[in-house]
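During the reporting period the student researcher (J.K.) took over the structure-prediction task from the postdoctoral fellow and processed the backlog of single-chain submissions. One of the processed entries is reproduced below for the supervisory committee.
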Amino acid sequence: MPITNKDRQIAEIFSLNQSQPEKRDQVYYNSLAVLAVNNYCQWMEILTDLKESDSWNPITQSLGDMADLSLTNLGKIECRPVKCDASVVDVPAEVWHNRIGYLAIQFDEGFTQAKFIGFLEKVENEKIPFEHWRSLDDFLELIEQLETVHSDQMEVHLGNWLQGIFDQTWEAIETISQPSHLELGWNFRQRYRTSSQTTDSHLSAIERVKRLYLEPDQSEIALLVGLTPTTPSEMNISVELYPTQAYSHLPEGLQLIILDQTGKSVMQAEAGGSEKLLFKFSGESGEQFSIKIVLREISVTETFVIESTV
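J.K. obtained the following structure tokens:
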């Protein structure tokens, strides 16, 4: 992976917080290793959270020798830096626990390239020769396994919604207001939806909304998901992002992405100062889709399973 000028600047800023030369070097190397892995994860569409990592806190940087990167909803990966002339990887005992795995990253002499030496799921020695490290493919397989487990735990089953069963994080639409300039469209949709409902439960629309807080801006937005069964095994689905009362527009650069059950993007839009983003599509019982919301380095994904109405 290339190491950018920005990466080196960030590592330099962190290192200058340390008074001892040895500690400055340690923080510089650790920070570059974490950034290299973070860049790789973004390239591989693995969600990360630098701010949740101990290695990104100046206080914990001073207290220990850690180079952890928090992978969203999965755990922490330790990113051990390796100097250009080394043939072993140093893994201090203090990071032998609370890690889902370890990556070794070697820098060239000018800190312009990061080479991945390999991956280990567990370590029990402080010095590990290069030949003992396994393929990077093992790291990707572990991530896939962990994401599958997390996805199974966090899936939203739309069959429950049809029975009036909702997770507490998904609220009635009346609980979250919109800015005044969006209320006309909101009220129109409410009247249209109500008038189009019939006594047939298969044709009744259901809408729920979830508050999302996108750090570091602390922007609060609302994710609205609506579904209308058209047959016992099919339904129309709408996905909408809009700002809450405190914001008149969605954050610049906010992306709304719809993924199919293989994780492939099938719809994508970006807010360029827009008031809302909206997608409509249909699905059949047994299908799965995900809603991915991205704002710079922050990413949130919600996964849904479409279920029969009978």
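The committee noted the following: The chain has two domains: 5-152, 155-305.
J.K. will present the remaining backlog at the next meeting.
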